[in-house]
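Fold this sequence, please.
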Amino acid sequence: HERAALEHDIALTLQRSLLPAELPAPVGVEVAVRYLPAGPYIEVGGDWHDVVDLGSRRVGLVVGDVMGHGIRQAAVMGQMRLGLRAYLLEEHPIDEVVRRTDALLQHLGDMHTATLVLCVVDLTTPALCLANAGHPPPVLVDPAGDAAYVTGGHGRLLGLAEPADRPVHGPARIATGTCLLMYTDGLLERHERAGDDGYALLHRTVHGFRGTPDELCDRVTDAMVDDAPSDDICLLAAKVVARPGEG
């Protein structure tokens, strides 16, 4: 048990070193994340998140998951995160960003698959564009607290050899005060295994919410995560807020 715990700690340290140390704070959006590791004797996974300030009052938000567990998956995750960030900063359309990230994954060797959801928010409108590669759908919570899943822009997962369409949802107008919650499937797994509808539970949990992204993450983890999850869980919450002098 001591050796397993030591190896887990080493892998966890590697995994954390591959995730962003801090998040940018573009004016007009508040962001919070939670990364909850699996229990001490479960290998680390490939969950990841990123927030990219794209300038011109645009911000990129991404959550992804490399399938499987172990140091190799953590290393692949780190390469995917940096590749996607580079493609975003090169100002490619988001469907092209996803296509390039897919090609990168296929060139990393071995057979890896991954899912991700990528959202770019234009804070001037505000509006969002979203591309989903086989990932659980994000949730939008409007200023009145009404929650709805964003099911558009959904294509297949990454890492398969055959070409794939990369549909895009949006640009779709959203109101100032809207929250977006992105997450990995570890959030739902325990509930699904117990025979419950994880999506319905998450919807009930966030419906009626009218707080900050930090409060939203706390609300979700308090309701849906136990002390020793069987898989890593990543949450990213973002809220569109008025700039000083607006609203």
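The radius of gyration is 17 Å. Helices lie at 2-17, 71-89, 94-106, 186-193, 198-206, 213-224.
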